[in-house]
Every structure is written in C-alpha cells, then in structure tokens.
Amino acid sequence: MDGPDHLGEPVKITSAQPKDATDWAQMRNALWPGGGDKGTHADDINRLLADAGDTVNLIARDGTGHAVGFAEASLRRDYVNGCKTTPVAFLEGIYVAPEARGHGVARALVAAVEDWARASGVSELGSDAAPDNMASLKMHHALGFDETERVVFFRKLLGP
Question: Which SUPFAM superfamilies does the annotation name (predicted)?
C-alpha cells in the first residue's frame, strides 16, 4: 500500500522485518516513552515479528527510505468495545513522525491494516484512544472510525 508523503513522493508501506527493528523501536518509544522492556521495545518487537498469524506490523517509509510511521494491529477474540463480531481486527498502535503528519501517512497505514483485516476474514476494525488525546481522536474521526463508547477503568489494590 502506498500513499503520499510529506515530500510529495509515494510513501511505501511494508510489513515490518527484522531490519526495521531500530527504526520501529525509535518510533515505538516516541509513541510509548519508556514502554516495553527497559524502554528499548526489543522484546516486544521480537515477539511481534515472531507472531505473524494474528498480527500485522507495518512500517511507512518516505521516498528517501526514511521511516516516518508504523502501525500494529492484531486479531482480538475477546470483547472489543462497541464491536458486534468476533474476531475483530484491532489497531493496537499507530504513529506518524511529526514532520510527516497531515500528509496521508496514517491513512495509508490504516488502509493497509484494513486490507489485512479483510484478508483475515473480519468485518470490523476497532481502536482506542485516551479521551484527552485530541490528535488521536481527530485522526480516528478523519479516517472513518465511529466513536462507540467512553470508559473509565478502575482498580483496587487487594491486601493480603
């Protein structure tokens, strides 16, 4: 799947490969700072690369080969808020480098996820975003997602 990049040249969307790990980890850290294993995301990336059946991991590169975004999606068989079927393709994470935002990179990534989802036999694509993440909410709406519900999660620590 290709789409326009911030330079006006095609963005190339490809399945993530081991050679993409460094770029992918840097973008994951920009999206989820300090996340993953000690902030490196290496274990997560290795697990995602090994789990090819129920996941798709995509890298977007501009016309010069620079990584400008990624998307990770999986098939979820548990309840996905607002969805009516199972399994559901779920957009676990999407990131576009700040300099490439607003130029169709997210649209190209999500279109590639949709293609994978259809090929996997599912009819719904779910996603989530923090209610205060206005950029993510705007992107989801612009890409045709419908807001289905807002939820607050709670926890209670249980003593011995």
Answer: Acyl-CoA N-acyltransferases (Nat)
Q: Choose among 58, 151, 138: nearest CA to 101.
A: 138
d(CA 86, CA 12): 30
Domain residues for 116?
2-142
The gap from C-alpha 55 to its chain's centroid, in whole angstroms, comes to: 11
> pLDDT of the chain along its 160 residues, tens only?
455 444 567 899 999 999 999 999 999 999 998 765 555 788 888 888 887 789 999 999 999 999 999 999 999 999 999 999 999 999 999 999 999 999 999 999 999 999 999 999 999 999 999 999 999 999 999 999 999 998 888 999 999 9
Using alpha carbons, list the distances in angstroms from residue 148 to 80, 83, 126, 131, 142. Answer: 10, 8, 10, 12, 15
The DSSP line for 87-125 is SEEEEEEEEE-GGGTTTTHHHHHHHHHHHHHHHTT---E
Model pTM?
A: 0.88
CATH, residue 12: 3.40.630.30
For residue 146, what is the DSSP state? P
Q: How many domains does the chain have?
A: 1
